[in-house]
Design goal:
By secondary structure, the protein is mainly beta. It is 12% helix and 38% strand.
Length: 324
Protein backbone atom coordinates (compact mmCIF):
# COMPACT_ATOMS: atom_id res chain seq x y z
CA UNK A 1 0.00 0.00 0.00
CA UNK A 2 1.42 3.40 -0.97
CA UNK A 3 1.94 6.12 1.62
CA UNK A 4 -0.80 8.23 -0.01
CA UNK A 5 -3.24 5.30 0.12
CA UNK A 6 -2.35 4.73 3.77
CA UNK A 7 -2.95 8.42 4.52
CA UNK A 8 -6.35 8.34 2.79
CA UNK A 9 -7.38 5.17 4.58
CA UNK A 10 -6.32 6.38 8.04
CA UNK A 11 -6.81 10.15 8.10
CA UNK A 12 -10.26 10.04 9.73
CA UNK A 13 -9.11 7.55 12.36
CA UNK A 14 -6.03 9.61 13.22
CA UNK A 15 -7.90 12.93 13.30
CA UNK A 16 -10.36 11.41 15.78
CA UNK A 17 -7.59 10.80 18.32
CA UNK A 18 -7.31 13.22 21.23
CA UNK A 19 -4.61 15.89 20.80
CA UNK A 20 -4.28 15.36 16.99
CA UNK A 21 -4.54 18.54 14.91
CA UNK A 22 -3.57 17.27 11.46
CA UNK A 23 -1.99 14.54 9.33
CA UNK A 24 0.18 14.68 6.21
CA UNK A 25 3.11 13.21 4.30
CA UNK A 26 6.59 14.51 4.96
CA UNK A 27 10.19 13.62 5.73
CA UNK A 28 10.82 12.02 9.09
CA UNK A 29 12.73 13.97 11.74
CA UNK A 30 15.31 12.17 13.83
CA UNK A 31 17.04 14.04 16.65
CA UNK A 32 15.64 17.27 15.28
CA UNK A 33 17.17 16.66 11.84
CA UNK A 34 15.39 15.66 8.66
CA UNK A 35 16.30 12.25 7.28
CA UNK A 36 15.68 11.11 3.73
CA UNK A 37 12.71 8.90 4.61
CA UNK A 38 9.07 9.69 3.92
CA UNK A 39 6.60 9.15 6.72
CA UNK A 40 3.06 9.74 7.88
CA UNK A 41 3.42 12.93 9.95
CA UNK A 42 0.86 13.40 12.71
CA UNK A 43 0.50 16.95 14.03
CA UNK A 44 -0.47 17.21 17.71
CA UNK A 45 -1.35 20.13 19.96
CA UNK A 46 1.45 19.09 22.28
CA UNK A 47 3.65 16.04 22.72
CA UNK A 48 2.59 14.01 25.73
CA UNK A 49 4.12 10.97 27.44
CA UNK A 50 2.41 7.69 26.58
CA UNK A 51 1.27 7.42 30.19
CA UNK A 52 -0.84 10.56 29.72
CA UNK A 53 -2.72 9.13 26.72
CA UNK A 54 -5.51 6.61 26.49
CA UNK A 55 -4.50 3.51 24.54
CA UNK A 56 -6.80 4.49 21.67
CA UNK A 57 -5.08 7.88 21.35
CA UNK A 58 -1.49 6.61 21.01
CA UNK A 59 0.03 7.06 17.54
CA UNK A 60 1.58 3.76 16.40
CA UNK A 61 5.20 3.78 15.23
CA UNK A 62 4.16 2.23 11.89
CA UNK A 63 0.90 2.16 9.94
CA UNK A 64 0.64 -0.33 7.07
CA UNK A 65 4.42 -0.66 7.19
CA UNK A 66 5.03 3.09 6.84
CA UNK A 67 6.80 4.98 9.69
CA UNK A 68 4.97 7.74 11.54
CA UNK A 69 6.33 10.93 13.06
CA UNK A 70 4.66 13.00 15.79
CA UNK A 71 5.16 16.77 15.44
CA UNK A 72 4.01 19.35 17.99
CA UNK A 73 2.13 21.98 15.96
CA UNK A 74 -0.02 23.70 18.57
CA UNK A 75 -3.55 24.67 17.61
CA UNK A 76 -3.96 26.06 14.09
CA UNK A 77 -5.98 29.27 13.79
CA UNK A 78 -7.04 31.37 10.80
CA UNK A 79 -4.40 34.09 10.68
CA UNK A 80 -6.89 36.81 9.88
CA UNK A 81 -8.97 36.05 12.98
CA UNK A 82 -6.90 36.73 16.07
CA UNK A 83 -8.76 36.11 19.31
CA UNK A 84 -5.99 37.74 21.31
CA UNK A 85 -3.08 40.04 20.60
CA UNK A 86 0.17 38.09 20.95
CA UNK A 87 3.93 38.56 20.64
CA UNK A 88 4.93 38.40 16.97
CA UNK A 89 1.97 40.51 15.84
CA UNK A 90 1.98 44.00 14.34
CA UNK A 91 1.96 46.86 16.86
CA UNK A 92 2.89 50.52 16.93
CA UNK A 93 2.64 53.99 18.44
CA UNK A 94 -0.24 55.81 16.77
CA UNK A 95 2.23 58.05 14.87
CA UNK A 96 4.51 55.32 13.46
CA UNK A 97 4.06 52.67 10.75
CA UNK A 98 4.32 49.27 12.45
CA UNK A 99 6.73 47.06 14.35
CA UNK A 100 6.47 43.87 16.35
CA UNK A 101 4.86 43.10 19.69
CA UNK A 102 7.91 41.56 21.36
CA UNK A 103 6.71 39.99 24.60
CA UNK A 104 4.49 40.34 27.62
CA UNK A 105 6.79 41.26 30.51
CA UNK A 106 6.43 42.51 34.08
CA UNK A 107 7.31 45.68 35.95
CA UNK A 108 9.91 44.53 38.48
CA UNK A 109 8.39 46.59 41.30
CA UNK A 110 4.62 46.34 40.81
CA UNK A 111 4.57 43.06 38.81
CA UNK A 112 2.11 44.75 36.43
CA UNK A 113 2.04 43.20 32.97
CA UNK A 114 3.49 45.31 30.14
CA UNK A 115 4.00 45.01 26.37
CA UNK A 116 7.68 45.15 25.34
CA UNK A 117 8.96 46.40 21.99
CA UNK A 118 11.39 49.06 20.72
CA UNK A 119 11.42 52.79 21.44
CA UNK A 120 11.08 53.42 17.71
CA UNK A 121 7.99 51.17 17.64
CA UNK A 122 6.17 52.27 20.80
CA UNK A 123 7.67 55.73 21.41
CA UNK A 124 8.23 57.08 17.89
CA UNK A 125 12.07 57.20 18.17
CA UNK A 126 11.90 59.76 20.95
CA UNK A 127 14.89 61.23 22.80
CA UNK A 128 12.57 62.12 25.66
CA UNK A 129 12.64 65.89 24.98
CA UNK A 130 11.46 66.18 21.38
CA UNK A 131 7.69 65.71 21.92
CA UNK A 132 7.71 62.83 19.45
CA UNK A 133 6.05 60.75 22.16
CA UNK A 134 4.65 61.19 25.66
CA UNK A 135 3.76 58.76 28.43
CA UNK A 136 0.14 57.73 27.92
CA UNK A 137 0.25 57.91 24.11
CA UNK A 138 -1.98 55.37 22.32
CA UNK A 139 -0.44 52.12 21.06
CA UNK A 140 -2.32 50.23 18.35
CA UNK A 141 -2.49 46.55 17.41
CA UNK A 142 -2.15 46.15 14.49
CA UNK A 143 0.14 49.11 13.87
CA UNK A 144 -1.08 52.00 11.68
CA UNK A 145 0.64 50.63 8.54
CA UNK A 146 -1.39 47.43 8.91
CA UNK A 147 -4.73 49.17 9.32
CA UNK A 148 -4.68 49.97 13.04
CA UNK A 149 -6.95 52.91 13.86
CA UNK A 150 -8.18 54.76 16.93
CA UNK A 151 -10.21 53.99 18.93
CA UNK A 152 -11.06 50.45 17.82
CA UNK A 153 -7.47 49.12 17.74
CA UNK A 154 -6.20 50.75 20.94
CA UNK A 155 -4.44 48.01 22.92
CA UNK A 156 -2.13 49.89 25.28
CA UNK A 157 -0.67 53.22 26.33
CA UNK A 158 3.01 54.11 26.36
CA UNK A 159 4.29 53.53 29.90
CA UNK A 160 8.09 53.91 29.77
CA UNK A 161 10.94 54.10 27.29
CA UNK A 162 14.69 54.54 27.19
CA UNK A 163 15.39 57.81 25.31
CA UNK A 164 17.43 57.46 22.14
CA UNK A 165 20.52 59.62 21.62
CA UNK A 166 21.19 60.77 18.06
CA UNK A 167 24.37 62.33 16.70
CA UNK A 168 25.74 63.43 13.34
CA UNK A 169 27.19 60.76 11.04
CA UNK A 170 30.61 62.45 10.94
CA UNK A 171 30.71 62.68 14.72
CA UNK A 172 29.91 58.98 15.01
CA UNK A 173 32.95 58.09 12.93
CA UNK A 174 35.29 60.31 14.97
CA UNK A 175 34.10 58.66 18.18
CA UNK A 176 34.39 55.09 16.96
CA UNK A 177 38.01 54.63 18.02
CA UNK A 178 37.38 55.63 21.62
CA UNK A 179 34.19 53.69 22.33
CA UNK A 180 34.32 51.13 25.10
CA UNK A 181 32.63 47.83 24.41
CA UNK A 182 31.14 47.25 27.87
CA UNK A 183 27.65 48.67 27.93
CA UNK A 184 27.61 50.04 31.47
CA UNK A 185 31.07 51.61 31.04
CA UNK A 186 29.89 53.23 27.83
CA UNK A 187 26.77 54.59 29.50
CA UNK A 188 28.75 56.01 32.43
CA UNK A 189 31.38 57.57 30.21
CA UNK A 190 29.28 58.96 27.37
CA UNK A 191 25.58 58.92 28.32
CA UNK A 192 23.44 60.76 27.74
CA UNK A 193 25.42 62.70 25.15
CA UNK A 194 26.63 60.02 22.79
CA UNK A 195 25.85 56.30 23.06
CA UNK A 196 22.92 53.93 23.49
CA UNK A 197 22.72 50.33 24.65
CA UNK A 198 19.02 49.61 24.15
CA UNK A 199 16.19 50.68 21.84
CA UNK A 200 13.32 49.64 24.06
CA UNK A 201 9.97 50.74 25.43
CA UNK A 202 6.97 49.28 27.25
CA UNK A 203 3.26 49.99 27.05
CA UNK A 204 0.55 49.34 29.63
CA UNK A 205 -2.37 47.31 28.23
CA UNK A 206 -5.77 48.96 28.40
CA UNK A 207 -8.31 47.40 30.76
CA UNK A 208 -10.18 45.38 28.11
CA UNK A 209 -7.12 44.23 26.12
CA UNK A 210 -7.14 40.53 25.26
CA UNK A 211 -3.54 39.33 25.31
CA UNK A 212 -1.70 36.03 24.96
CA UNK A 213 1.81 35.48 26.36
CA UNK A 214 2.65 32.88 23.70
CA UNK A 215 4.94 34.08 20.92
CA UNK A 216 3.34 33.26 17.57
CA UNK A 217 4.90 30.07 16.21
CA UNK A 218 7.34 29.74 19.11
CA UNK A 219 5.40 29.41 22.35
CA UNK A 220 5.89 30.67 25.88
CA UNK A 221 9.16 32.23 27.08
CA UNK A 222 10.68 30.02 29.78
CA UNK A 223 13.37 32.35 31.16
CA UNK A 224 16.32 34.49 30.09
CA UNK A 225 19.84 33.69 28.91
CA UNK A 226 22.93 35.64 27.90
CA UNK A 227 23.91 35.21 24.26
CA UNK A 228 26.93 33.13 23.27
CA UNK A 229 28.81 32.93 20.00
CA UNK A 230 27.30 30.41 17.57
CA UNK A 231 24.14 30.12 19.69
CA UNK A 232 21.07 29.17 17.63
CA UNK A 233 18.39 31.83 17.99
CA UNK A 234 14.86 32.37 16.70
CA UNK A 235 12.33 35.15 16.51
CA UNK A 236 8.74 35.72 15.42
CA UNK A 237 8.30 39.02 13.64
CA UNK A 238 5.50 41.00 12.04
CA UNK A 239 7.13 40.91 8.58
CA UNK A 240 9.14 37.71 8.16
CA UNK A 241 7.44 35.52 10.77
CA UNK A 242 9.50 32.80 12.46
CA UNK A 243 13.15 32.72 11.39
CA UNK A 244 16.31 31.09 12.74
CA UNK A 245 19.95 32.05 12.75
CA UNK A 246 23.21 32.07 14.71
CA UNK A 247 24.86 34.62 17.00
CA UNK A 248 27.85 35.95 15.06
CA UNK A 249 29.23 38.81 17.19
CA UNK A 250 29.07 39.92 20.82
CA UNK A 251 29.99 43.25 22.46
CA UNK A 252 29.53 44.98 19.11
CA UNK A 253 29.57 48.76 18.64
CA UNK A 254 27.43 49.80 15.67
CA UNK A 255 26.07 52.87 13.92
CA UNK A 256 22.33 52.69 13.21
CA UNK A 257 20.44 55.01 10.88
CA UNK A 258 16.95 56.09 11.93
CA UNK A 259 16.33 57.87 8.64
CA UNK A 260 15.40 61.54 8.94
CA UNK A 261 15.39 61.32 12.76
CA UNK A 262 19.15 60.81 12.91
CA UNK A 263 21.97 58.33 13.47
CA UNK A 264 22.68 56.57 16.75
CA UNK A 265 25.68 54.67 18.13
CA UNK A 266 24.97 51.51 20.11
CA UNK A 267 27.48 49.59 22.22
CA UNK A 268 27.42 46.06 23.67
CA UNK A 269 25.17 44.73 20.92
CA UNK A 270 24.52 41.21 19.62
CA UNK A 271 24.80 40.65 15.86
CA UNK A 272 23.23 37.60 14.22
CA UNK A 273 22.48 36.24 10.76
CA UNK A 274 18.87 35.80 11.92
CA UNK A 275 16.75 36.82 8.89
CA UNK A 276 14.69 39.97 9.51
CA UNK A 277 13.14 42.87 7.63
CA UNK A 278 11.56 46.27 8.34
CA UNK A 279 8.59 45.73 10.64
CA UNK A 280 10.31 42.96 12.62
CA UNK A 281 11.71 45.53 15.05
CA UNK A 282 10.70 44.73 18.60
CA UNK A 283 10.81 40.94 18.20
CA UNK A 284 12.08 38.95 21.14
CA UNK A 285 14.98 36.66 20.23
CA UNK A 286 15.02 33.29 22.01
CA UNK A 287 17.30 30.26 22.21
CA UNK A 288 16.45 26.58 21.67
CA UNK A 289 14.98 26.35 25.17
CA UNK A 290 12.73 29.38 24.57
CA UNK A 291 14.77 31.59 26.89
CA UNK A 292 14.78 35.28 25.96
CA UNK A 293 18.23 36.33 24.77
CA UNK A 294 17.78 39.67 23.04
CA UNK A 295 15.49 42.38 21.65
CA UNK A 296 15.75 42.83 17.88
CA UNK A 297 15.87 46.44 16.67
CA UNK A 298 17.94 46.90 13.50
CA UNK A 299 19.33 45.08 10.50
CA UNK A 300 20.86 45.30 7.06
CA UNK A 301 22.37 43.15 4.32
CA UNK A 302 21.48 39.84 5.98
CA UNK A 303 22.58 40.79 9.50
CA UNK A 304 20.37 41.63 12.48
CA UNK A 305 21.32 43.79 15.49
CA UNK A 306 19.84 43.11 18.93
CA UNK A 307 20.01 44.50 22.47
CA UNK A 308 20.96 42.17 25.31
CA UNK A 309 17.75 41.25 27.14
CA UNK A 310 19.48 41.57 30.53
CA UNK A 311 20.18 45.25 29.80
CA UNK A 312 16.58 45.80 28.72
CA UNK A 313 15.43 44.32 32.03
CA UNK A 314 17.91 46.35 34.05
CA UNK A 315 17.40 49.75 32.42
CA UNK A 316 13.60 49.60 32.20
CA UNK A 317 13.26 47.79 35.55
CA UNK A 318 11.52 44.77 34.03
CA UNK A 319 11.32 41.03 34.49
CA UNK A 320 10.72 38.98 31.35
CA UNK A 321 9.62 36.02 33.46
CA UNK A 322 8.45 36.18 37.07
CA UNK A 323 10.35 33.87 39.46
CA UNK A 324 8.36 30.81 40.53
Amino acid sequence: MTLQTTLTANVAKLMAKANVEGVGIGYKLQGGRRINKLCLAVLVEQKLPLSALAQADIIPAFIDGHPTDVIASGVFRALGIAEKAAPGMSIGHYRVTAGTFGALVFDAASKAQLILSNNHVLANSSNGRDLRASIGDPVLCPGPADGGRLPEDLIAQLANFEPLTFIGANESRMLAASLKVTALEARQTYAPAITNVIDAAVAKPVADAKLSPDILGLGLITGTKEAALDMTVRKSGRTTGVTEGKVLLLNAAVRVSYGPVGTAIFTDQIISDLPSAPGDSGSIVIDNERRAVALLFAGGNGLTVCNRISLVEQILNLQVVLPK
